[in-house]
Amino acid sequence: MLEYKNIIVPYDGTENAKKALRAAVQLAKCSEDCKIYIASVCNLAAAMTSFDQTSIKEGSLATKMSEDMESLSKKHLREADEIVPDDIEHEMLFEVGSPGPVILELSEEYECDLIVMGSRGLGQIKGLLMGSVSGYLLSRSKIPVFVVK
């Protein structure tokens, strides 16, 4: 069996993301000294495109949405932290940006050798993920991508 040292899991709190995280935990248990990076990525720009820009006053809506999305992402990360057993080394990551490119950047920055993710992750705020992030990562990642259904 392959052993992994650093696994990254894009996480948005959906059932598929939870399944992916549980799969990553099982893979980490089979590897020696494996660390899991759990990444929540907020795509504020995608969320804002659904609003008429002239209706946004002085950025107050953008500020409120940003705060709400950050709060939701941090809630998801707290939930994810409860899924991972204490004996598995893990780190929570929060970023703002387009999920596909951000996950690729994080996977390189943290020298990950595997991405484990749910097949579709449109959560409570549709702007969190736009389009198929799994498809984006499958076509562009230099490391293996394990998609959990």
Low-confidence stretches: 124-131
CATH topology assignment: Rossmann fold
The CATH architecture would be: 3-Layer(aba) Sandwich
Count of folded domains: 1
Q: Tell me about the biggest sheet?
A: 5 strands, parallel
Mean pLDDT: 85
**How are the strands of the biggest sheet laid out side by side?**
3-2-1-4-5
Beta-strand residue percentage: 15-25%
- C-alpha end-to-end distance: 21 Å
How would you name the oligomeric state of the polypeptide chains in this document?
single chain
Overall SS class = alpha/beta
Counting DSSP H or I runs of 4 or more residues, the number of helices is 5
Helix proportion: 40-55%
Overall form: globular
Tally of DSSP β-strands: 5
What is the CATH top level name?
Alpha Beta
- Radius of gyration, rounded? 16 Å
Helix/strand order, N-terminal first: EHEHHEHEHE
CATH superfamily: HUPs
Domain UspA: 3-149
Protein name: Universal stress protein NhaX
Pfam families: Usp (PF00582)
InterPro entries: Rossmann-like_a/b/a_fold, Universal_stress_UspA, UspA
Compact summary:
With 149 residues, the protein is of the alpha/beta class.
Labels describing this entry:
149 residues; alpha/beta; Rossmann fold; 5-stranded parallel beta sheet; 5 helices; 42% helix; UspA; Universal stress protein NhaX; Universal_stress_UspA; Rossmann-like_a/b/a_fold
